[in-house]
Write a structure and sequence with these properties.
The chain has 153 residues and is mainly α. The chain has one domain. 90% of the residues lie in helices and 0% in strands. The protein has helices spanning 2-47, 51-71, 76-98, 104-123, 125-152. Helix 1 packs antiparallel against helix 2 (51-71) and helix 1 (2-47) packs parallel to helix 3. The radius of gyration is 19 Å and the shape is globular. The model is unreliable at 1-22 (pLDDT under 50).
């Protein structure tokens, strides 16, 4: 009987820990999705000749996203999936603009994502301040790489 309780307790703990891990990856994925939407919206501004707006959007998006990346203890595969989500949403917003499907729903998604990223910036302020020197180069390199890709396309 004691062994059954031990196995049951172990099972419950594993279930609890896996639900926490899933909640954390959901947060990372949602931030990645919103970062992609905001960067995509900034890319549209870039295409329209407003590079400064792109720089601001990318800075906000990457700062919020990286604050979670540096705060959480994510597996490499979780980070790769989140990066794919981010990139996919950049493409989604650019495609909406290019196909003249930038509807009010897309606009509302952009606004909603700015709000979500602002919330993350406030919640992750300490992480941002403490780790900024670690990811500043990564963020700036990513922004410059995106601009290079946007200029080529």
């Amino acid at each position: 009987m004691r062994k059954i309780k031990s196995v049951f307790t172990t099972f419950l703990m594993l279930l609890f820990l896996s639900s926490i891990a899933k909640a954390q990856t959901n947060k990372l994925d949602n931030l990645a999705a919103c970062a992609g939407v905001v960067i995509g919206n900034g890319a549209v501004d870039f295409y329209l000749g407003d590079e400064k707006s792109f720089d601001v959007a990318a800075n906000i998006a990457y700062s919020a996203y990286l604050s979670e990346v540096f705060y959480g203890e994510y597996q490499q595969n979780d980070l790769q999936v989140a990066d794919q989500i981010l990139g996919g949403n950049v493409d989604k917003i650019i495609n909406a603009h290019n196909t003249e499907n930038f509807t009010s729903d897309v606009y509302e998604e952009v606004v909603s994502c700015y709000r979500a990223l602002a919330k993350q910036l406030m919640e992750g302020a300490e992480t941002i301040i403490n780790n900024q020197s670690k990811w500043n180069e990564l963020k700036n390199t990513s922004i410059e790489t995106l601009k290079r890709m946007l200029r080529a396309g």
